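name: query_chain
kind: protein
chains: 1
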Amino acid sequence: VQLQAFGGGSMQAGDSLSLSCTVSGRWASDYGVGWFRQAPGREREFVAAIKWNGDSPLYGDSVKDRITISRDNAKNTVFLQMFSLKPEDTAVYYCAAPQTIKTYYISWRWYHYWGQGTQVTVSS
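structure:
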């Protein structure tokens, strides 16, 4: 399976952001998808994850009040919306899928397939 993230860019604090992740390959719609971010010099951080059927989204503690994850399996796309952006949201954002279909996790260590990442920069 292949993943590709879109939608990053330069934003101002308080702006909203929409990222998308296209999932392609065999059984694409059967993979759970996670979003992670990594800022320079920091650990990779869990942002959100969603089941293959769109149920039971999970959100990272640092962003859970400001984000929504959703998916459209007809388009094999997962969406991440972030609101009230802060400078500390600046990072490269990655979407990823586990090795096994119909699973999803919080820890990045369980994800096997990764998109190329998209840079998000938030200025104060």
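note: The two ends are 37 Å apart (CA to CA).
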